[in-house]
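tool_call: predict_structure(chain=1)
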Amino acid sequence: MGYIPITSFRRMVDAVQLQHLGQQGQPLPARPVDKWQVLRELAIARSRFGLSDRDITVLQALLSFHPGNELAAPEKLVVHPSNATICERLNGMPCSTMRRHLGNLVDAGVILRRDSPNGKRYVRRGPTGPHAFGFDLSPLVRRFAEISAAADEVRAEEQQLAALRETISLMQRDLRGLLDYIAAENLPSHADRFHDLLSLTGRALRRKLDCDELKQIETQLQQALDMLHDQLEPPAIVSPTEEMSSNDIENEQHYQNSNSESYESEKGENTCVTSAEQRRMPLGLVLSACQEIRGYSSEPIQHWTDFVKLAEKVRPMMGICSSAWDEAKRRMGAEEASVTLAAMLERFAAIRSPGAYLRSLSAKAAAGAFSSMPMVRALDRCLAA
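tool_result:
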């Protein structure tokens, strides 16, 4: 075309149009752009350009009039379908609706109008080549890097949102589980406020929330979980060699009615301790009796969560496969399985197959015939002897 117009037929010139028309004198990038790839990237980043999914659908129809898949040759980047033809490819979309979406694409700077002197769209062939009037797709080529970068940002944000929602879902499950445990054991707590929090966060998650809103919910749930953990956890251990407190001694005496008095008692008659009783087993008693496992931790073991994490770390070193460990946690509970593993570590040299031994104890636990408490008591008596 001998002259490239910079204004549209019977339309006001706006700043966006002038901004992108100012780039027309510059050569196109040397590397061609796949038209469907740029469409996919723009569909992901459409909100960054102020576009809707219907705008993208209209752009897809325009791109279907471009021959081939690559946007490269300048003389082929202007498509000139009539409004009626575009509406046909849009499955009968009303012309007024289609024109509105075309205007949105122009305002976003992803296409340009190349109107003829009378506003019609056509191609005129001459000795210097074809001259087309219609919609110019060159902004898609020039802005491909910008569009791709915006799409990458959107994908990263969506991944972060998905991760936050997943974390919140797990935290809700844990909070609900702790509240159920407290209710079952009739333990004192301010349960109503935590139930209200679960209800409020559940309703909030029905809406489309941004990262800041999700992080705020995550913080609220974490605070609630910390408060419940503080209520359920035993006092922090100041020193592994510190003498047991009077409360610990009273709790420890709670188990004196066990019928099994030796480490091997789990092989015979073993009194099963309920989950509530196991929860009340002082962590100080476990650490005092099972001293080997403490050597694998560089930090003080202050809570049951610390103890369970340490057991997860030691388990593969003992040659116990993940399936046997998962089975033990499922049948005993994570804390009970961790105590059992720590007790096994104390007599590790005498155990021929730790994995098989743990599986046998898991089977007994499933039948309600096993508790780690006699093992811990037997180890504690050996140290005191």
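agent: The beta strands are 33-34, 70-71, 78-79, 112-114, 122-126, 129-136. Proceeding to next step.
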